[in-house]
């Protein structure tokens, strides 16, 4: 699992491409129904589904079918955000688990989902979100295996997401510094031009 995730990190040039390939491989290798990534906003006040793979097809907010996907994403996002036990540890929901919101349980029943695993995307002292895996097979052996695979790949996904955000912050800081330098240069040019103009006017006044 770690080798697979590292291979994806090398082969996929952007974080969205990495997660698309990551989820597609997880769904395929575990013979699952769906995989989704849920991200926290900057102040951790809410959680939203960022990307999903349903039976081998990837969806993002830019996908035309995104809004029409029949998924209880708001309820599941609210549950992931509110269920504090899942912020640091992987949580397994088996069968008609009463910890899940009723609309999520209803969706699972309608689609034959009997196993839902949520692994946190977390660094020490910092939480980024979750990756969830929904499957139709809930046997103990399958659940243990899927959990091990999901946790191993979630760690690599966390590093990929964190590294991407650090690079983005670095790029933003470089752009900000460039803007400040340009503003300072323009300010110096204006200052020098005005100073020269005032000096000329003063000389002319003194001559007059």
Which characteristics define this entry?
208 residues; alpha+beta; six-stranded antiparallel beta sheet; 54% helix
Quick description:
The chain has 208 residues and is an alpha+beta fold.
Task: Summarize the structure in words.
The chain has helices at residues 2-11, 15-30, 73-82, 102-110, 140-207, and strands at 34-40, 47-54, 57-59, 91-94, 115-123, 126-135. It has 208 residues and is α+β, with helices and mostly antiparallel strands. The chain has a six-stranded antiparallel beta sheet. Strand 1 and strand 2 form a beta hairpin. The protein is elongated and about 100 Å long. The mean pLDDT is 85.
Tally of helical runs = 5
Strand order of the largest sheet: 3-2-1-6-5-4
The helicity comes to 40-55%
**Which sequence of SSEs, written as H and E, runs from N to C?**
HHEEEHEHEEH
Strand content: 15-25%
What's the end-to-end separation, in Å? 86 Å
Question: How many DSSP E strands?
Answer: 6
Silhouette: elongated
Structural class: alpha+beta
Give the radius of gyration: 26 Å
